[in-house]
Amino acid sequence: MTINSPKPLFGTVLVANRGEIACRVIRTLRALGIRSVAVYSDADADARHVREADVAVRIGPAAATESYLKIEAILQACRDTGAEAVHPGYGFLSENVDFARALEKAGITFIGPGVESLNVMGDKIRSKNHVTGYGVPVVPGIAEPGMSDAQLIEAAAGVGFPLLIKPSAGGGGKGMHIVERPEDLEATLVTARRVAASAFGDDTLFLERLVTTPRHIEVQVLADNHGNVIHLGERECSLQRRHQKVIEEAPSPLLESLPDGAGIRARLGEAACQAARSVNYSGAGTVEFLVSDNAPDEFFFMEMNTRLQVEHPVTEMVTGVDLVEWQVRIAAGEELTLRQDDVVLTGHAVEARVYAEIPEKNFLPSIGQVVLLDELPDTVDCNVRVDSALLEGLQISSSYDPMISKVIAWGEDRTAALDTLDRALAGYTALGINTNVEYLRLLINDADVRAGRLDTGLIEHKMPDFTFRHAGDFEVAAAAVFAAAMREPEPQDAGKGPWHLRDGWRLGEPAPRRISLGTPDGGIATVEVSGSVGEGTATVSVNAGPRRTASVRFPRRGHAELTLGGESRTYSLAPVSMQPVREDRDKLVPTEVFLGNEGWSCRLDVLSRETRLERVLAGIEREEGAADPAVRSPMPGTVVSVSVSNGDAVEAGQVLVSVEAMKMEHQLVAPLSGTVHIGIASGDLVKADQVLATIHPVHPTEPSKAEDTIEEAVIAMGAAD
Questions:
Q1: 244-250 and 283-292 as β-strands: parallel, antiparallel, unpaired?
Q2: DSSP strand E in 445-565: where?
Q3: CB 3.0–4.6 Å: which of 147, 398, 411, 589 could bond 417 by disulfide?
Q4: d(CA 365, CA 635)
Q5: Using CB atoms within 10 A of its CB, is residue 65 exposed (0-12), middle (13-18) or buried (19+)?
Q6: DSSP code of 138?
Q7: For 420-466, how does the pLDDT look when each residue is reduced to its tens digit (9 = 90+)?
Q8: Residue 19, Cβ density class (10 Å: 0-12 exposed, 13-18 middle, ≥19 buried)
Q9: Peptide bond just before 162 cis, omega within 30 deg
Q10: Phi/psi zone of residue 604: left (φ > 0), alpha (ψ -120 to 50 degrees), beta?
């Protein structure tokens, strides 16, 4: 919905953010004819938001504290480009009252609420105490500023268990911790304070009663500077992990299923508007509520997000309102032309957040380079929207949040919206990085999710039941045949005879090519390929299994159709890390092959003799099934705490080290009992796979027999090209 207004808007707006939200804001600025300015760190020099803006300004190194969180750097970028206003997106400085004050002092408009709103609503303790005076219901708990751990522990008995520790500053679910038992509270408070201080620069905590079977329902509000406040319906955000939303939808399936759903929606909306009025709110904001599934007519205020939300597209799709456009217009002084009666929710919309992470490994964030990208294929209908900042060749950094894009689908009803989203995710391709797309498909097709039986703990309950796909013979064969096809002579070489090739040609039947592939679980698959893949005369055997005829064709860039033993499957496929082959130094072959199919993807390493040998030896250094005594960093990051000292006796599962990466803290535990040796200290920067600690077991296992080691090594040396 675009508004025609004679009132002039801003000439230049700076977007103080990065990633998909920066791209999304720039899109609306372009539609409004406003010159856009992007800011970027060294890590984002080639980012998509930099390319799409009219002007881009470097503001510092990769660390957010030295770039996107550095107020003076943003102000200088405004001065250098003549920006009259700043859109903060979400995260970073979007709710920072000092940033708003600095802009106000510099005569630059903050596209967001005023200082009063930020000051009151930016602190959960203050906001909770504030809205109770305006008739907005709140969750029972203890929320007083400046409470020590001892005071919180003393007050916890009155709150009751289980309870929730929450940081007063910040948002997005970061730093929240559930405590089931009184004896766990003291240690969890220590972790919660450290995380809050690191993430928000403020370690103030408060306690709330944990509402059982809770549903997270939030209300979008719009308010102008002329006293008008409206709401645009609710969003259901109950599907969360670690208090971070994964799937969001509008309207709420809970309210849609209730006879008095419209009445509850009206009450929720009025409570949200009342919270906004209480601080003279201006712009777009979201008021979040907890609603008990057991008593849906009862709801509790959690917090107000004084910014645009990640999930705002679902509201836009069911209302037709461009929230970013209204943010800009309201900041420029325009009056809302929308009235409450004008807001109509049409159909249903669902959003899935795509993260660079590995769900099977407890959602461990992942880094890498995007080598093949197709986020919105032609097969997906027009009711799908993708908000993304991905580009082919883009390096996913460990310096920022792992969310990389959002896929949003609309349907006439909830079932249609979920079906459309499922098809869109099945066609989503981002090879070269690990993503949660397969997991998202499993989640939205779960029976309880489909039935709308949601709560904020559902993901944790469902996760053990999900079965993730792994590379089987067909996928291994596809990667091997692709690698073999890249080694075959070009068609123009076919008439030259074998003499110019250094490929071990000999009289008689050609020897099969033996290709070793490393699987994601650390295993090795051996594939023998005989004959010509390109001519369709090849046969393939996987791990000494039956020999089957095979052929491959490439219907379009990045896609391969493999026929194996009469069965055909199509994969998205991309080679990585090309290197010359020994027999023809002018020909390049991949050392890795990424392939994907219907939302699933994996990486298969093409092993040389040397790398295969390394894998074999690593696997026989300890008995099968034995724990690895080395504790390694899962990704690049910063050591934020070390819980043990050299020589300490530790138990299996005991926390040794905490590493912060991609805005999350990862606790690394002892894989077995024994004596620990620590090689790092708090504050150290660590690399991916770096050994941080080693456990010397109490009863070390006996090494494998020497003759077995020699036999495996000999096999390894002869098993790869």
A1: unpaired
A2: 513-518, 524-530, 538-542, 548-556, 559-564
A3: 411
A4: 8
A5: exposed
A6: B
A7: 999 999 999 999 999 999 999 999 999 999 999 998 889 989 999 99
A8: buried
A9: yes
A10: beta
Tokens representing 42 are 């060294």
315, 323 Cβ separation under 8 angstroms: yes
Residue 53 token pair: 């803006």
Pairing of strands 229-241, 163-167: unpaired
Q: Report residue 482 as tokens.
A: 């692709």
CA 375 to CA 396: how far, in whole Å?
A: 16
> Tokens at residue 485, please?
């096809």
Residue given tokens 């700076």 in the structure block: 14
**DSSP letter for each residue of 90-128:** SSTTTT-HHHHHHHHHHT-EESS--HHHHHHHTSHHHHH
Contact (CB, 8 A) for 320 and 344: no
Task: Say if residues 249 and 417 touch (Cβ distance below 8 Å).
Answer: yes
Tokens of 268: 């929720």
Quick: pLDDT tens for 197-218: 877 888 999 998 888 788 999 9
In angstroms, the Cα distances linking 195 to 165, 441, 494 are 12, 31, 63
Q: Which residue matches tokens 């790869």?
A: 720
The secondary structure of residue 720, as a DSSP letter, is -
List C-alpha distances in Å: 165 to 64, 124, 137, 242: 26, 12, 19, 13
The two tokens of residue 581 are 């082959």
**Element of type H or E holding 220:** strand 214-223
Please check whether residue 204 is in contact with residue 137, taking contact to mean a CB–CB distance below 8 angstroms.
no
The first and second tokens of residue 634, run together, are: 């899962």
Q: Exposed, middle or buried by CB within 10 Å (0-12, 13-18, 19+), for 595?
A: buried
Q: How far apart are the first and last CA of the chain?
A: 60
